[in-house]
Structures are given as structure tokens and as C-alpha cells.
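Hi X.,

You mentioned you wanted examples for the new student's onboarding notes, showing what a folding record looks like when two proteins sit in one file. Here is a clean example. The first protein comes first, with its sequence line followed by its C-alpha cells.
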Amino acid sequence: MTSPSPAYIEEALVLAQDRLTNDVYRLTVEATTGGSPGQFYMVRAWDREPLLARPISIHDADEGTISLLYQVRGRGTELLARLHKGDTVALMGPLGNGFTMENLHGRVGIVTGGIGIAPMFYLASTLPARSATVIAGFKSTPYAVAALLSLGVEVYVATEDGCEGTRGFCTDIFDPAAFDVVVTCGPTPMMARVAQLCAQAGVPCQASLEAHMACGIGACLGCTFPTTSGYKRVCADGPVFDAAEVIWHA
């Protein structure tokens, strides 16, 4: 895994806020701290309430800028969605351990569900050209797919309502035997199924887990979960883990 970087706190200038769907946004800020694919930031755009910052994975990073793709799910992300160009947002990060890039070789399968697509643009942009294939599942209208296509990445889409791509779930169109290694991010049941299919096919899989976080640095133990080697913290020990290590149905 990526070695955790020191966490810096800075007031970042908002460069753009793009609304991709009714509840999905891409926030681009001017920041100096960067990060690696799979890492995240604790983000705050308010003074007192809500009490906690929100963890958001890095969607893209370039020299001097960071993009964060997020879905409005509660009060904190509602406030983030109100930001405009010229506003400022507090960032703490980069945090956590990202994808183990040295193990991503050959044919790389990227399996995502919903907002789990957020860290995959940055990941795909760092992989060799035409080495990655994305299988992305959505409830309805897809988002963030055009950016992946712009990289030359092959993308297959499944939607639960059949509005685009194959009707059903991304796991319905995922064949681990087509890949040398797989990475996944999305709802836990989806990732559990991906991990199961990969284990059956003998294909290594890295899973980026999601969890409610309070501190983001491993101090509060609020995001622990069971693994084959004991309880671990999503924020500090992950968020990316070997999928075979995770106890999915504890």
C-alpha cells in the first residue's frame, strides 16, 4: 500500500464546482498537498455544524489542484454543494493508504458502483494506456464516465433501471478471468461479490472501503472493521485493502 503522507491542513480556494447529476458534484480546488490514487481528504466548509468534516476520495490531482467527486447525502455534503468559485474550503490530507500501484500490472479490471467511481479517474490516469477496463454500475443515469473515456479507457456500464448500458448490476457483466488484477470501490455488497468472484477465479483484488469517519487519522477507532488479521481502521490502515483480507459478512 501507499505510505500515508503527512496530513496538512490548508484553506483551499475553490476553482470550480461542477454539477454532474441532481446530487453528484465535482469540486476542484487550488491546493498544494496532492496525494496518491486511493487516498482521501477530510473536507470542511462550515464553522460549527455539522461537528465533523467529511471524508472524500481524490478524484484527480495535478500540480496545484485537486478534484473531489462527491454525492450529496446529508447536511455536510449539502453545504459543500453550495460552494462557488472563489470560496474557500478546509482540507486535511492527503490521508490513508491508497492503491498498491506496483501490483497493478497487466490487464487491470476496475469495478465500481455509484459514487465508488470517484477515485478511479485518478487511478486510471496513472496506469499504462489501454491497460485498464472499467465496469461501472449505477442506479440510473451514469456519471463521470466521459472523463474515463477521454483517457482511452474501455468502459462498460450497467444501470439498474436499464436507461443506459446493460440492465442490472455491474457484477452481472464482470468476469474476473478477463483480468490479471482487479480493483473495486462501491457499496459493500457489491464489493463483497467482486471479492468472491475474484477469489474463485484466483485473481488478486484490491478493495477501497467506505466508512463513516470522525477523525480521519485513526485516533478515534470509529471506522474499524474485521479482517482475517484482526480489526483494522478504514482511515489509517486503508481505505484500500487486499479484498481477501476483509471479512465481508461479519
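Then the second protein repeats the pattern, sequence line and then C-alpha cells:
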Amino acid sequence: MKFPHSAFLIFCYGAFCPFFLCAQEKINIEGSTTVGPIIDAFVEAFSEAADSSGNVKFSVKKTGSGDGAAALIDGRCEIATMSRSMKPDEVQKAVKAGKTPTTFTICMDGVCLIVHPSNPVRQLTKEQVKKIYTGSVSNWQELGGADMPIVAISRDTSSGTYEVFHQIAVDSEKLGNKVEYANSNPQIFTRVSTTPGAIGYVGLGFLKTGVATMQYENVVPSRRTIASGKYALSRPLFLLTNGYPPLGTKLLEFCNFFLTEKGQDIIETKGFVPLTNY
């Protein structure tokens, strides 16, 4: 007996539909270590959601905003996480490579200066910070503290946090020869918390017991001062994609996850500043 054409199509759809339904959408994410804790929590919550389970596979690398931009330009990731905007030369490379960087601003953050708890100095001006990191001030005694060498710790140059700090706090001047570099917020935190003369800077979400937070230009970094823009070292955090993700894809759903109540809860839990108020 021959099957009618319509019956044949129904049979094929019924036989092979489960295969297509089980096909996974792969999302490679690469970039900022500052955005890292948020992304890790987003991936976990998104993967656990009933309508997402089994339909998407994530890969996450956290090596710096510059690496994220490069990966997006090279087509090695679907999402670049960045704690700074793309530089003009990165945009030019993206356009040359046929890419269209599209930005999702997920929250606000502050670059927070930290020192060892034993250090009595609790506030610095922009000029003082600039002198510390360019090497013209090398002892805490010059800033009203103890007679103790200053150990200045900076993020590595591929970091978006470095870019923001270097541009705003140091006016993009060359850092001193004795400045130490660390490739993540936790590394800076550990170095400062174990070194009495150290000073460093981390994202708001990385502040915890073990270090003292500095006032910058007489303003303490907090959710309120960062949200209002009063804290001068405030900055947004981003997800970037190549063009706007197609409607109905898990990529678009994930990029908009920060707008959900769960997404906003995660941002607050991780110590950053949400863009919405539920």
C-alpha cells in the first residue's frame, strides 16, 4: 500500500521531530573576570529553568575584556563579556571582519580602591592616586600614613577594569616601573589583604572582609553612589554579541536574562548594581 504524500510527511515529522527538539544551541562566552561571577550564576539559573533544560550548552572563559572582544571579532564566541566599551580599533577590526558588535548593558559597577586593614589612610584624591600609580609617591608617610613603602597593584592591561582605572584615575599616563600586575580581581584582593603597604582596585562585587575600602574624591563606593554616578570610578558592565540575536533563540533569551526578576536578584546578590528596581 502506498502512503499518501501528506501521510508520508506526518510519518517523517513524527519519526524525526524528537531529534530536532533535542538539538542543543551552543553558547560560547568569553571575556571579563569582573562580569564572571554574574555570568556563572546566570548560566546556572538559566540552565536549571524548565524551558531551557537540555536545549543549550554553555562554555565560559574568563580571561579579560580584551580577550572577549578579540574572541567576538574572531568568531570564537557568541557572547563577549566586557567591563568597558569596545575601543575604536576593536570596532574597526570587527567591521573589517564583517562583525556588528551589539551591546547589552546588564548592570553598573564601581572600580573600588582597597588597602590593607592596618593602613590608617582611608581617603585619597585623584591626584594622590595618580601619583601612587605613576610612581611619584612611594611611601604612605607622604599621604599621612605610616612610614611604609607603597605597593601598588594593578590589573593586567587586557582587563577592562584596568582600562577604566587607567583612563579615569591616571589620565592614561604610563604607570610606574614598580607597579605589580594581577590577572583577576581575586588575585588583587589576596595580594592587598596579605600586604600591609599594598593598594589595589577591584569591582564592587569583590569587596569583602579582609581589606579596607578607600574613599575616592571624598566619596565611598556604594550601590547608591555608583547608581547616581556620584562615585567617579563608576562604569557599566556589558554583554556583546555579533548583531542582535535572532528572535526565538536561546542566545537572545540569555542576553535578556538580566531583565528578569531572577537576573536582577543575581546581580544584587553578587554585589553589583541592577539597572531596574523590582
